[in-house]
Design a protein that fits this description.
289 residues, five-stranded antiparallel beta sheet, two-stranded parallel sheet, 17% strand
């Protein structure tokens, strides 16, 4: 009987040891996962701060009348800084519904969708409650249980998602040709995209619709990818003044994988000097001051 009890106790001890081992292995695995996640989050946070540094660099260069885009390296990260003049784009706050409709049509939206959307954008931004022929004011929004129109100028592209009929609008595509920040009815044809030039041609736009840029409002997009694969993007629209730079809009940008160029193939972000637009389209190197 004693031997039987001893055997049972031995088996029980073995099972306890097995369970303890399994628990230990599980805790070890969870700890490794937690460490891996913490390292990944730290890498992403580092990439975001690097993108913020890139934004500061871009604003510094814009203050020196340098609006060239550039690819460079900072530490173990690849950085792409893209700068666009907003006065080369159509301001959705300033132009008429026919101009908005022509732009949306040029971007591939069928006329049956572009016409009501152009009117809805105009109704959303204007100060009154009068409904345009194909537009939408408070009643139309109320019927769908949606917040009503702002009845004030758009302050960011993100606001367009609140406009009735804009649910499937590609803001990334539209932002290459339109803005809500230039404050002008005109665009600079020397800087405008073929899409924008096509809109001006479609409407037989008057001479006042074309004017040189004041070089005052810019859209900046900074993308960063580290050697570990962490990626971050930061976008901003800034106004360059005589004494200060004002950030009009700021957002986290979704980015795809970076180009295959290795870090060592790129110039150092802290050494590269971007030539101004009236100089040669070629970077020369100098230290930032």
């Amino acid at each position: 009987m004693s031997r039987s009890r001893d055997g049972f106790a031995l088996v029980l001890v073995l099972w306890v040891l097995v369970l303890v081992g399994l628990l230990a292995a599980s805790q070890t695995r969870l700890a490794r996962v937690a460490v891996t996640e913490a390292v990944a989050q730290e890498a992403v946070a580092s990439a975001r701060w690097t993108a913020r540094a890139g934004l500061e660099v871009a604003m510094h260069r814009l203050n020196r009348s340098d609006a060239n885009s550039v690819s460079c390296q900072i530490g173990d990260a690849r950085m792409q800084i893209s700068i666009e003049d907003e006065e080369a784009k159509i301001d959705l706050n300033m132009v008429s519904p026919p101009t908005i409709r022509a732009l949306l049509t040029r971007l591939g939206l069928p006329e049956a969708a572009s016409t009501p959307l152009a009117d809805a954008i105009a109704d959303y931004r204007d100060a009154d409650d009068l409904v345009r022929l194909n537009g939408a004011e408070g009643t139309a929004y109320d019927a769908l249980g949606l917040p009503g129109p702002k009845n004030a100028p758009l302050e960011s592209f993100a606001e367009l998602t609140r406009v009735l009929g804009a649910e499937n609008l590609s803001l990334a595509q539209l932002s290459r040709h339109a803005t809500v920040h230039s404050g002008r009815r005109s665009v600079d044809p020397a800087l405008a995209s073929p899409i924008v030039l096509g809109v001006l041609q479609d409407l037989s736009s008057p001479k006042g619709a074309r004017a040189p840029s004041r070089r005052a409002v810019f859209r900046i997009l900074v993308t960063v990818e580290t050697m570990s694969g962490a990626r971050a993007g930061l976008g901003a629209v800034v106004r360059i003044g005589r004494s200060r730079t004002t950030v009009l809009d700021l957002w986290d940008a979704r980015i795809a994988a970076a180009s295959p160029a290795a870090v060592g193939d790129l110039p150092d972000c802290l050494l590269i000097h971007w030539v101004s637009s009236d100089e040669q389209d070629r970077p020369r190197r100098s230290r930032l001051r």
